[in-house]
Amino acid sequence: MSLDLFEETDNVLANLRPVAEPEPGVWDNFTAGAGKVAMQTFAKAGRAASMAAAPLAMALEKAPGSTEVQDKFFKAHDDIFGRAVDYWTPKPGEVGEAGMVVGSLLGTLPLVFASPAAAVASTQLSAGEDLVRKGVDAGTAQAVGASQAVGLGLGIWVPILGKTLAQRVLVGGAGFNVVQGGATRAISAQLAEGTAAEGDFKTFDPTALTLDVLLGAAFGGIAHINPRMRAEGEAWQKRLTEWGAKLKPSEVDALATLRQAQHLNADSMPGKPVDVADTNAHVDRMRQAIDDLANDRPVNVEDMPAPRFESDAARAAEAEMAVKAMQDEAKAEGMVLEENVLPKVSPQETAARAKAAPEAGKPATEAAEPVDPVTTAAARFAAENPDMSMFVGKNADGSDITTTPRQWLEDADAAMRQANDDVKLFEIAAGCLLGGGR
C-alpha cells in the first residue's frame, strides 16, 4: 500500500480546526457537580490549614541556612493536600452554573458557621496559593488573597448590625454582599492585571453575583441565629446609639454637610475634573438642578458653564449601568424615553381640531395630524358626547367609578403632559450624571 494515503491523512488531521468545548447548561451534572465543588472547598480549607503550619516547619530547621525540614514539609503538603484539591476540582465544562453555586454554598457555609475567622483565613491562604500555582508572583498572589479575605470578612460581619431578620438577611446580608463582592472582584482584577490570572475576576459575573446574593442571605441568617454574633451586633448597636446621642446638633449638621459635599464633589462626577474651576462648575450645576427639583421647576442648567472631565472608564461604566437600570425600570412601568416619540398634540387640542375641522372645510383626520386615528376618533366622540357617563372602574367599597369623556380627556391630557415633563427631566438628569447634559 502506498504511503501517500497516510501522508494525506496526516495533512488533513493537522489542518483540522480545534474543537471548542461546548458550554455546559445551567443544570448540567448538578448533583455530582455540586458535591464535587463542595469537596473542593473543604480540600482547600485543609490545604490552607496545612500552609498555616509552614512557619513552624521553618523554625524546626536543625542548622542555619538548611531547608531540609521545610522541603519535606512542602513535599508532604503538596502530595496530600495539593492532590486532594486537584482531585476535587471540576474539569472545564464539567459542571453547570447551578452546581457551582450550590456546591460553593455547601462548602463555604459550614466553615463560616464553625469559625468565621478560620473561613476568612482559609480564603486568603487558598486564593494566594491558587494564584502562585498558576504562575502569579507571590506578592501579587497574597495581595489578591488578602482582598478576597477582607471581602468575605465584611460579608460575614456586616449583617450583625441589623436589628431584625429582614435587616440581617436582605440589607446587611444579600444587599451588602452583592456590593462587597463586586468591589472585591474589581480590586482583585486590578491587582491581577498583567499577570497569568488576568481575566479571572469579573466584577459583574452572573454566577458570582448569584453566589453573592445567596451567601449574603445565608450570612444574615447565621448572624440572626448565632447567639455570639447577635450579642456582638447588640453591642455595636449600643455603641452607635450612645455615640449618636452624644452628637451636638452642630455636629449632626456638619456630618450632613460633609455627606452632601461628598455627593456633589465626588459621587456625582462622571470623571476626573480637569482643574478646580471645573469642580466648581459641576457643583454649581448640581446645586441648581437640585434647587429646581425641590421647587417643582423644570431643571435647566444649559446657561451655566459646563465642567470639563478627563476620562474615567470605571466611573463611566458605572454611570452607564445606572442610566441603563433607570431606563429599564422606566420602560417596565410603561414610560417611553426615546426623544420625539410622545405625541406633541394633546387630546384637548385634538378635540378642538376635530370639532373645528368641518367648519374649516377639512377632514377631521387631516386637522388632527400627527395624532393616530384612534386618538382622533376618541377626541371626536368626546366632543360629540362631552357629558355622557362612563364606567372606568370600582372603588374599594365596590361602588362604580364613573367619569365623562370630557373629564377623561382632561385627565389623559394632564398625564401626557406630565409624561413629557418626566422624559425631559430624565434626559437632563442623565445628561448631568454623564457630564454632557444641558
Note down, in words, how this protein is organized:
Helices cover 69% and strands 3% of the residues. The protein is mainly alpha-helical and 438 residues long. It has a domain of 216 residues. The strands form two sheets. Strands 1-2 form a two-stranded antiparallel ribbon. Strands 3-4 form a two-stranded antiparallel ribbon. The longest helix has 30 residues. It starts with a helix and ends with a helix.
Topology, element by element:
Elements: H1 4-15, H2 30-52, H3 54-59, H4 68-88, H5 97-114, H6 116-134, H7 138-157, H8 165-192, H9 206-225, H10 227-245, H11 249-267, E1 272-273, H12 276-294, E2 309-310, H13 313-332, H14 347-360, H15 364-367, H16 373-384, E3 390-394, E4 400-403, H17 405-434
Antiparallel strand pairs: 1-2, 3-4
User: Any idea what the shape is?
Assistant: elongated
Overall SS class: mainly alpha
Please work out how many helical segments DSSP would assign: 17
- Radius of gyration, taken over Cα atoms and rounded to an integer in Å: 32 Å
Instruction: Give, in spatial order, the strands making up the sheet with the most strands.
Output: 1-2
Strand content: under 5%
How many DSSP-defined strands? 4
